[in-house]
Amino acid sequence: MLVAREYSTVAHARDALAGRMDRASTPSLFDRIDWFESLHAHCFGKMPVRILHTMEGDNEAWLFLLSPTERRLSALANWYSFSWSPVFIGDPCAETRRRLVEVMAAHLIAASAHIDLYPVTDHADLLLDAFRRAGWFAVRRPMGGRHLLDLNGRDFAAYWADRPGRLRNQLQRKARASRFTIDIGQHINDALWRDYITVHASSWKQPEPGLTFLRSLAGREAAAGTLRLGFARLHGQPVATQLWSVENGTALIHKLAHDRAFDGASPGTLLSHAMFAHAIDTDGVQRIDYGTGDNAYKAEWMDRREVLHRLDFFNPRFASAWLPAARTAISALVG
What we know:
- Strands 1, 2, 3, 4, 5, 6, 7, 8, 9, 10, 11, 12 and 13 form a 13-stranded mixed sheet that branches.
- α9 (267-282) links the parallel β11 and β12 (287-292).
- It contains eleven helices and 13 strands.
- The chain starts with a strand and ends with a helix.
- By secondary structure, the protein is an alpha+beta fold.
- It has two domains: 4-144 and 307-334, Aminopeptidase (3-Layer(aba) Sandwich); 153-285, Aminopeptidase (3-Layer(aba) Sandwich).
């Protein structure tokens, strides 16, 4: 009989995993125990977690959830997460995956009234099916997008030739007049991090709420050799920066910023051109992932958009869930 185990801290889950969700065995950054541990520690303070685990033979499924209130659960994810999904270990078939998740969903229905999961791309259908079978009322809503580029064997020159003429012409004009120097490194230190903070503080963005998380991420990826930290500088002054990681044939664009005082010279665009060229021709990636968000500029650099979904599960055993369930279902119908 399948049984769901539950852990109340990420540290306890790490101990139980015994390395099975480390970098060496888990290709996706967003499925690793390091990712969940750091995200919780730096971005969610003292918010409790509920981590579910089910095993069948050599196959396992894990759900990493937050518990913001007593009967409410959410995905352990935020704006740094390109996606969230159950983490599977082994090589379970679709039916086994569904069965493993259903056991965890049945475990959660005993005391939880509402679960929301976002951003979900992979396994949305599986989650909906498994939770419905366990007795939950489920609603799926599209909520934003994720921009991706698949190179399909193209080098940078071929990729760049496929970009919109407006972008290519802009880059050509700005490059002719550019006084910026570009550097792309694989390490991080206090001086480079101060440069990153300086640029971000002068950018169009709101104050960064997760600087300690990003610093931790940069340190881990630098130690693994996967960090790509780029700067555009003017006479040594940092005016644009981008934080990428490159691993397993995929480049992830985590953060970018530029000093608004230099908008007219487009240092961010020039830096992007250099970062894409480095990732494609030097690192040899076959996919670049721009992460969540429907910023117009992303479409110019990428080839396709993947829909992100929010999944809401309501427990019909709790009367307090009935009205929110009805409102969410109507919202999904009207878009």
